[in-house]
Amino acid sequence: MLLAVPACLLWPVSGGQVDWPRVALLALLHGCLESLAQGAPTPCARLWYRLRGRTVPEAPAEGGPRGGSFFPVLFAAVLMLPPAAAALVAVPGALLGPTTAPRTLRRVWNAAQLALAAFAAAAVFRVLGGERLLAGSRFPGAALGALAAVLAFCLVNGVLVGVMRRLAGCRSGTGRAGRRLAGSVPPALLHGAGGLMIAVLWQGTYGAFAAVLGLLPLSISAWVSAQGDREQAAHRATVRALVQAVEIKDAYTRGHSERVGRASVLIARQLGMAEERVRTLHFAGTLHDVGKLAVATELLRRNGPLTEAERRAVEVHPVFGHRLVRELAFLGEAREGILHHHERMDGRGYPHGLEGDGIPEFARIISVADAFDSMTSTRSYRRGRPVEEAVAELERCAGSQFDPVMVRALVVAVGEHGWQPEPAPPGGWDGEVPDIPLGVPEPARRLPAQGRAVSTGGGSP
Known about the structure:
By secondary structure, the chain is mostly helical. Helices cover about 60% and strands about 0% of the residues. It contains 18 helices and no strands. It has helices at about 20-35, 45-50, 70-80, 85-95, 105-125, 130-135, 140-165, 175-200, 205-250, 255-270, 275-285, 295-300, 310-315, 315-325, 335-340, 360-375, 385-395, 405-415. Helix 3 (about 70-80) crosses helix 5 and helix 10 (about 255-270) crosses helix 18. The model is unreliable at about 1-15, about 60-65 and about 425-460 (pLDDT under 50). Keywords: Membrane, Transmembrane, Transmembrane helix. This is HD-GYP domain-containing protein. It comes from Kitasatospora terrestris.
């Protein structure tokens, strides 16, 4: 039996009546598919976990159109329901969905944020007469109204996110907030198209049954995407754990790994490398010194010269690093970059003495990024070199120590994007001994500049 109340009690713009079973079904579908798209248990599964006394797995969630959220059902509610009823559809999924601590506060905020955005979008749709056009499936009029509703949703959601970030103390500029808002529009438009399809099917001959069938490919796609996101998050967590382990052992180089990864990405993007390889290269640059875990801490922190035997012991750290990560299949060619990042173009590097194009591309990129960050970073015993001086040193050694193509790519990228070295921590380095340049011993200064190695004055070994 149809339960209905005057819609004017909910929102005077809508007119007509509210179909509460439709509201309830849309709310259930939205809550279930939103959780599914984030790789988290659905509300029914969460209830089952609690009934069995088991801990409910949580997955991070934030409001707003983004990868990991699933809004076609919510947008269908915006198109088919009065504004206040559309807002109600957003509430259960947000209150029961996964989020991060403090969970109660975040769930209340997410529910209010999505409800207000859905309310505004539904009101815009009805003001533009979209409801009448949709009832007769008249296009493109209904599609234009749906487009306006999606844009209204993004605008309200973006403003609310900006207000919350401001209240939380985030001081991002207007330009960055505008880029975040613009970035939310493309996925919201895709979800809006899905919502329009659901609304049209729902109002057809087969009603809700056809709409739910239409949701199947969308929900499967969202679930597959969520699994990919979870896998990527696991990969990033693995890399972070390894880097943190290195920094615990060799704290003096804290931040160096991340900066080498960042500089490697600058070079790769300047070369036009495919984005998938750029992500893999970032892993390689960040993990390039993971082999230090297998080197005696006393050698890494020696405040003085190393003997030849000690130097050889440290120079095998790329081999140790390769052994540590060789079972991590997701690293792919990053493993070769880690193994060979101390090779030189003239064949005088280590561990295998490769030369020229025989050195893997990732290793040639990381070699330049590593030396650049080492030269521009401040140490307890010397200030970092200016970027211009570091660039000049790289250019002098291009062809002998470094790949000239990679050096040129870094120079252009730094010129376009700038470079901000990590400053020394407040109060200095708290007595830690300096890291020691452990590359190929530098030839005598009287040799021509093209024949000598970069002296990083404390670079990564």
